[in-house]
Design brief:
Oligomer: single chain
Distance between the termini: 27 Å
Strand content: 25-35%
Shape: elongated
Number of domains: 2
Mean pLDDT: 91
Low-confidence stretches: none
Protein name: Methanogenesis marker 17 protein
Helix content: 25-40%
Order of helices and strands: EHEEEEEHEEHHEHEEH
Number of helices: 6
Number of strands: 11
Pfam families: DUF2113 (PF09886)
Radius of gyration: 23 Å
Length: 194
């Protein structure tokens, strides 16, 4: 596993710690999250039972706007979008149909979308958000932590916002102050306040 800036698995059970270190490394590598996660600290104690993972993301991907992958060419009667990258074409069409109606969105070929000039307006189209990759990144991080957590730890609490995330799981009810008693100290070990 390429090194994260900080990666620690902590457990009173040395064999379990080594196993979870390998499991976490494999899951992060398989889900291609190593590039996205900067710091990760996992605490596992099977006797309590508790699993706590806390970390920081390297950077949040920015929103994808029409201008990022298409040229907007306004004309007198129509606005022509020249698509340079088809990656976001499907979500673009969904957004255009929702905003202007399917009957007003013409796609003569896979690299061209045409809209009536009266509807499309001036600069709004270039700034239209088509996709937000951070949404899928959030889901992928939580999915990875669910996969890393011990089987049967179904009582859980999760948080992800901006660059910080944590995931707490147990077989038992989680105490109300779990964030203050277990999660905040883990962030402190990484030099971060929650």
């Amino acid at each position: 596993m390429p090194p994260l800036n900080y990666f620690v698995v902590e457990s009173p059970d040395e064999v379990g710690r080594d196993a979870y270190e390998r499991i976490a490394a494999d899951v992060l590598q398989d889900l291609d999250l190593i590039k996205a996660i900067d710091r990760l600290h996992i605490y596992v104690d099977p006797k309590v039972p508790i699993f706590v993972a806390a970390g920081l993301l390297r950077h949040m991907p920015r929103e994808i706007r029409v201008a990022d992958f298409a040229n907007v060419n306004p004309g007198e009667r129509e606005v022509v979008l020249d698509i340079g990258d088809e990656t976001y074409l499907a979500p673009l069409l969904q957004k255009l149909w929702a905003r202007y109606g399917k009957e007003n969105v013409d796609q003569p070929d896979r690299f061209t979308v045409v809209l009536p000039a009266a509807l499309a307006g001036e600069g709004d189209l270039e700034r239209m958000v088509v996709a937000d990759p951070s949404e899928t990144l959030y889901k992928d991080v939580i999915y990875a932590l669910q996969y890393i957590a011990p089987e049967g730890f179904k009582v859980r609490r999760q948080y992800i916002r901006d660059e910080k995330f944590y995931y707490v799981a147990s077989e038992d009810t989680l105490p109300a102050d779990i964030v203050e008693t277990m999660v905040a100290p883990i962030f402190a070990k990484m030099g971060v306040t929650l």
